[in-house]
Amino acid sequence: MACRLSKEKASGIAAEYCTNGFKKVESLLSVGYSKTYANNVGLKLFDNDLVLRAIAKIQAVAITITGYSLEQAQAEYEQARAQAIQLRQPAAAVSAITGKARLHGMDKDAGIKEETTPQLKPEEQARLNIIASEYMKRKA
Q1: Which residues contact 101 (CB under 8 A, 6 or more apart)?
Q2: How would you label 69-88 residue by residue, b for 16+ Cβ within 10 Å and e otherwise?
Q3: 103-126 per-position pLDDT tens digit
Q4: How far apart are CA 60 and CA 64, in angstroms?
Q5: Of 12-16, 95-99, 114-118, which has the strongest mean pLDDT?
Q6: Where do the domains of the chain lie?
Q7: What is the share, in percent, of the chain residues with pLDDT greater than 70?
């Protein structure tokens, strides 16, 4: 059976995903999919071009409005970590490392099964970056 995803539904999934800490299953549940569908078949919706474009658009707008990106936050955490090590403050270094991990969704409970806390694959992230940069070029 082919997936017929409307633009509105894709936008809803993207909006939930971008506002809930990038939790795919929770996003699908929020827009009305069943728990079984969200945990299994629904995760494939995040490979759909409509959903990918909607996510990229939201992220591009957020960067434009705030002037702050994931890369900037990561650089700040790295700078804080390096300074903490230089000042011999291991607790501060650990705090910065934890912050970097949270940026990438690695703060999830270890007791949760892997499939319930999916992460973007490198190729998905690369594709989102391309889509976002194309969107920004068109917007400029």
Answers
A1: 107
A2: eeeeeeeebeebbeebeeee
A3: 777 766 544 454 554 567 788 778
A4: 6
A5: 12-16
A6: 7-105+118-139
A7: 86
State pTM to two decimals.
Answer: 0.53
Q: Where are the alpha helices (DSSP H) in 1-140?
A: 7-19, 24-30, 35-39, 49-66, 70-86, 90-103, 122-139
CB-based burial label for 45 (10 Å; 0-12, 13-18, 19+): buried
Residue whose entry in the numeric block shows the structure tokens 């509105």: 8
Give the integer Cα–Cα distance in Å for 70 and 125: 12
Radius of gyration of the chain (CA): 17
Q: What angle do CA 38, 40, 42 make, to 5 degrees?
A: 45
Q: What is the phi/psi pair of residue 60, to 5°? A: -65, -40
**Separation CA 60–CA 8 (nearest Å):** 19
Q: What's the Cα-to-Cα distance from 3 to each of 32, 34, 52, 59, 137, rounded to whole Å?
A: 16, 16, 15, 25, 30
Among 110, 83, 81, smallest CA distance to 97 is for: 81
